[in-house]
Amino acid sequence: MRPIAIDLFAGAGGLSLGFEQAGFDVAAAAEIDPIHCSAHKFNFPDAAILPRSVSGMSADDIRTAAGIGSRTVDCVFGGPPCQGFSMIGHRALEDPRNSLVLEFVRIVSELSARTFMFENVKGLTVGQHKAFLYELVQAFDDAGYSVRLPWLVLDAAHYGVPQHRERLILIGAKKGTRLPDYPVPRTNPADAKKLVPGLPKGPSCKDALQDLPDADGFDALIEGDSVRTTALGKPSAYAKELRCLSEESWHYGYVRRWDPDMLTSSARTSHTEISCRRFAETEPGDVEPISRFFKLPADGLSNTLRAGTDGARGAFTSPRPIHFAYSRCITVREMARLHGFPDWFRFHATKWHGARQIGNSVPPPLVRAIAGSIIKALGVEAERPERTVNLGDPRLLSMGMSEAARHFGVKAPNGRRDRKSGQKKRKQHEIEEERRQIGMINA
């Protein structure tokens, strides 16, 4: 029987995917954003969704929703938002802004999970932020859990991802249970100057993107985000895996029924002629001086892909890198390739939500390596499941915030709003956003 895991602060499911690929069954996922809930439900139709904050959520709530009764929960994982600042005369965890971190510890304890994985930003490991981490380790200790020390910051580029992305990872286990080890690096980054002997070279941006057709060649991608097409040339080994061209490509996850001839999550972006000219003149690996967009190096790695802001903070799209071969920003699918998401995995149909879902996630190959170490500590031998899974209703991927909230029977989060839709409105927003980012209008 596959070990059971619970995803807290699930987003669209980057952590869920990595844990599933390592051999876990993700029984439930908690996520407050209805748009993210929709994407998670599409990609993981068998996982129960709890579409609300974890604040006050009980172990019984999770067990009931997941239908697991009193079965052992083998791992709880997630990345709660936190500030990490120590206040004079106060403990960092007593800061109300960090309350969700304590909720994470509480749920791990209430579920009596055998292990946990906590991920967050690298910045928590430096300066005054370290006080927060020491308090967090103590909180886990008080709850009956040991933490693997020293804590580590892992870069996805060392685990077969063509992107530098560093995340703080805390792993722990119930006292008396074997502590998981951190996974050792699997690859040398494509831009590594000093190579680690014995490690293969990781994929480059070209390896990730060269087989994807240019989205600007399809009129259907002006209004929509998918089109039927075929690969360009021979895919790299990395692209073959994300295209799921072999049984091994699925690792220990469930095979999905999907159409490999559909190019998805690839809505086009409208750039001005001036911007396209500047993009073309920018050298790969450099930053375009006006927009500050990074241009991908074909034989190197992507910079860290960011999420942008949600509706409560202005709804600004984070700058997507410039493609190394085309004078445009990369598409959501191209972002997904640089993040290690397989092609069957879908995101919201709009570029804003889709890019936000990727930018908020941890690259699945990195998560898979961590989850594999946890499985080993649990004494479980991962096995490939025999059952094939149907993906969810595609309409989940085009819902606005209000519609998604109604679908899950919740209120839309305060301050968040629906994204504009329609060709004319979308083009106008993209032009305004581009101008905003280069300082032509007041942000």
Sheet having the most strands: 8 strands, mixed
Q: Could you tell me the strand content as a percent range?
A: 5-15%
Structural class: alpha/beta
Number of helices: 14
Shape: globular
Q: What's the total count of β strands?
A: 12
Q: What are the segments in which pLDDT stays under 50 over at least 5 consecutive residues?
A: 420-427, 437-443
| Helix content class | 25-40%
What is the radius of gyration computed over CA atoms, rounded to a whole number of angstroms? 21 Å
Mean pLDDT: 90
Instruction: Report how far the terminal alpha carbons are from each other.
Output: 53 Å
- Helix and strand pattern: EHEHEHEHEHEEEHHEHEEHHHHEHH
Characterization of this structure:
With 443 residues, the protein is an alpha/beta fold. 29% of the residues lie in helices and 12% in strands. It is built from 14 helices and 12 strands. It has helices at 14-22, 34-43, 59-66, 99-110, 130-142, 205-209, 220-223, 237-242, 273-281, 332-339, 351-359, 364-378, 401-407, 423-437; strands at residues 4-8, 25-30, 48-50, 75-78, 115-121, 145-147, 152-155, 166-174, 227-228, 255-257, 262-263, 388-390. The strands form 3 sheets. Strands 1, 2, 3, 4, 5, 6, 7 and 8 form an 8-stranded mixed β-sheet that branches. Strands 9-11 form a two-stranded antiparallel ribbon. A two-stranded parallel sheet has the order 10-12.
